[in-house]
Amino acid sequence: MIYLMRLGFLFVVFSTFFSLTLTVRAQVPPCVPSSNVTVIATGLNNPRGLKFGPDGQLYVAEGGLGGSLTTVGCRQVDPPIGPYSGDFNARIVRVGAQGALTPVAENLPSSQTQPLPVPLVSGVGDVAFIGNTLYGLLAGAGCSHGLAGTENGVIRINPGGTTLIADLSTFIQANPVANEEHDDFEPDGTFYSMVAVRGDLYAVEPNHGELDKITPDGEISRVVDFSATFGHVVPTAIAYNGNFYVGTLGTFDNNFNGMIIKVTPSGQTQVVLSGLSSILGIAIREGKIYVLENQGGFPALCSGRVLRVSHSGNLDKIDVIATGLQHPTAMTLGPDGNLYVSNFGYGFPQGAGQVVRINL
User: Fold this and answer.
1) What was the pLDDT predicted at 50?
2) What is the tens place of the pLDDT at every residue in 40-90?
3) pTM listed for this prediction
4) Contact 281, 296 (CB under 8 A)
5) In 3-state terms, what secondary structure has residue 17?
6) E strand or H helix that includes residue 22
7) Which of 54, 296, 321, 354 could form a disulfide with 343 if both were Cys (CB 3.0 to 4.6 A apart)?
8) How many Å apart are CA 301 and CA 45, to the nearest integer?
């Protein structure tokens, strides 16, 4: 259950947060990454999904900083995780030369869990391009997240602002999955990753456990209800290579046992790899699957790493490509053939988030 996962995460953060805070504020990372990891951008607030645009520039979704706004009169997330509070400080930024950050969409919904021992923040979960048009996936919006008059969903970034094209909060409330996790339920969902495929968008939601299709016109349909087949496996990461490949986070009570599920365009599912731990990103390059995971479980310190899984009949050959990442949250493949990862993505002070390049 994510509820148990979060309790475990909060416990670990409580025991390490003060030393981490001092270290990060001193700008000395507490982890020692492998030699092929290079920091290319800093100063981010809870960085999440990231993609390269048709202009060759990198665009990063930020969770933001949360806030103190609250709501009444709607279903809240149960304690000790909820009730949430929030504000409008999430954004999408473009990474330029020497890591310069240029906002392309600002003042977006950002929400946080209860503040002790440290709030966990959600805002914009991911970004994706259809042609030259940029879209963002809202994860921190909704009345249950303390932000009245907002909904989780997909926004289109226009020259003069943003437009909500698909209301995913209303969709998931009107179309419940087969096996909701009642001990830890997010009424507005916690959408995490999104990809663009053949002119449409596909978004993964971990709490309810589903993969949804969103057209540019805002039509929403469910591709897979993972809860119906797999139970509460917490799908987080997604990539496409003829089929979708979805990674799962796992839960605290099953030692964060993650797996990769292949999903055909028609919605048929097959587990192709299991026994991984807390999968947060997937990328596919030259027939190989690259997996961003937290070895030993999502809360573990300095445990973020990237694996390369070779496809030789079965997905049975795994090489460790990079180590020493700290609470990474997402990964994408760059036009240069290297991997880019959002690092320091959960529970760190303002401006501590990074993007790192992993040279392959």
Assistant:
1) 98
2) 999 999 999 999 999 999 999 999 999 999 999 999 999 989 999 999 999
3) 0.92
4) no
5) helix
6) helix 2-25
7) 354
8) 19
- Return the higher-pLDDT residue of 30 and 295: 295
Among 133, 126, 118, 127, which Cα is nearest to 9's? 118
List Cα–Cα distances, 76 to 25, 39, 72, 320, in angstroms.
Answer: 33, 38, 8, 41
Decide: 196 and 130 in contact? Cβ < 8 Å.
Answer: yes
AA identity, residue 343: N
| Alpha carbons 199 and 98: distance in angstroms, whole number | 32
Burial of 103 (0-12, 13-18, 19+ CB in 10 A): exposed
DSSP notation for 169-205: HHHHHHS--SS--TTS--TT----EEEEETTEEEEEE
Which two tokens mark 347?
């529970």
Tokens linked to 262: 């292949």
Q: Is the pLDDT of residue 23 over 50?
A: no
Beta bridge partners of 167: 153
Phi, psi of 227 (to 5 degrees): -65, -30
At 235, list the tokens: 């799908």
The one-character DSSP state at 214 is: E
d(CA 313, CA 319) in angstroms, rounded, equals: 16
Please return the burial class of 316, using the count of CB atoms within 10 Å of its CB with bins 0-12, 13-18 and 19+. Answer: exposed
Q: Are 93 and 109 in contact (CB under 8 A)?
A: no
125, amino acid identity: G
- The answer to whether the CB of 272 falls within 8 A of the CB of 261 is yes
Give the separation between CA 208 and CA 200, rounded to whole angstroms: 21
